[in-house]
Target: Methylglyoxal synthase
Amino acid sequence: MKMNIAMIAHDKKKDELVQFAMAYQHVLKDHCLYATGTTGTRIAEATGLSVHRFQSGPLGGDQQIGAMIAENEMDMVLFFRDPLTAQPHEPDIMALIRLCDVYAIPLATNLGGAEIFIHGLERGDLNWRKLVHGKEEDQID
Ligand SMILES: O=C(CO)COP(=O)(O)O
Model:
């Protein structure tokens, strides 16, 4: 089943996320990818994958992804955070993380977690999200 996956990386973690996206391109290609601006450009350039790009993080990109979570439209968030650099938009980052907890959305904040998540995605561990997707389809009917 096609999942909506958000990919976000702070500047010092972007190379790591790009390498991750290249390594797991064969998995990611079957899903809808969303990203903050600069991260999205880097991933699309490196992999050729189609990525829906929101604003850059400091300009509201985290909030836009948060808005999708608030609609229960995001199924997984891979957010490679830089814990050693202060971010001007720290409140936005905290809000995104908080919404993942509100909606029980799987959130990996580093490469180690993302490795586990991507294998889980591949073997269908996220299929419980069908219930949520199903509900949305019901609402449309
Ligand atoms: O700052 C970010 C997330 O908090 C990432 O934004 P960019 O992908 O635009 O660099």
